[in-house]
Amino acid sequence: MKVYKIELLTKDDFYKFEKLDERFYFYDVMLVVANTNEIKIRDLERWLSKSEIKRSKSYVSEIAKINFVISRVIVNIVFKEILKTDIENLNFQRDSNNKPFIENPQGIKFNISHTDGCVIAGFSKREIGVDVEKINKRFSFQDILKECFVEKEINLIRNKHTLFFKYWTAKEAYLKWEGSGLLRNPKEIEILYVDESLIKIRDKNMKKAKTLKPIKLSKNYVGALCISEEI
User: Fold this and answer.
1) Terminal alpha carbon distance of the chain
2) What distance in Å separates the CA atoms of residue 126 and residue 152, rounded to the nearest whole number?
3) Less packed terminus of the chain by CB within 10 Å, N or C?
4) Helices marked H in the chain — which ranges?
5) 4'-phosphopantetheinyl transferase domain location, by residue (predicted)?
6) Can you tell me the distance from the alpha carbon of 87 to that of 91, in angstroms, rounded to the nearest whole number?
């Protein structure tokens, strides 16, 4: 899996990102990672439609507002360049699994995930799922272990917060790739192996294991990426 990773840390990075080059089309995935702690969303309104600006003002939670704005800006920049059109003309739709998409001749699909301080957007010609989580050492996950993990996973996780979030993001990315999200029981997806370069999972509904890719982020975050195999 060849990944073209772009990091957005400041307003200026968005201007550079706006000039998408053709390297995008030579990779399996373009992965955009934004550090939302350092970006002022009022500087990004030029990449939002009028309705999106209005919607952003309706958010009560500042974190939710920031995540919405930055997610939309990233997607808008990519598709306005792909379609060579104005942002006002972009038409967000949803498929039968409620996954958002924008029709385009290149067949580029996208998936978004965000948490406090970070937004990730993945773009690919294949089906794609991404997930990111901030490692919260205060989060008590013991009550949900038996609901979301099989016994083998529980024994490995125990009280390890980082491992819990690695497993969680892997399951989320896979289920988002599949299109079911958390409508399926996460226990049906078993994590077989995790290291710094790959994740192996087994879906009880599939005959063979699936390989995912961990997303390398700062020490306080973990993420995972899942795409369809090349045909």
Assistant:
1) 13
2) 31
3) C
4) 11-17, 50-56, 62-83, 142-148, 151-157, 161-178
5) 128-226
6) 9
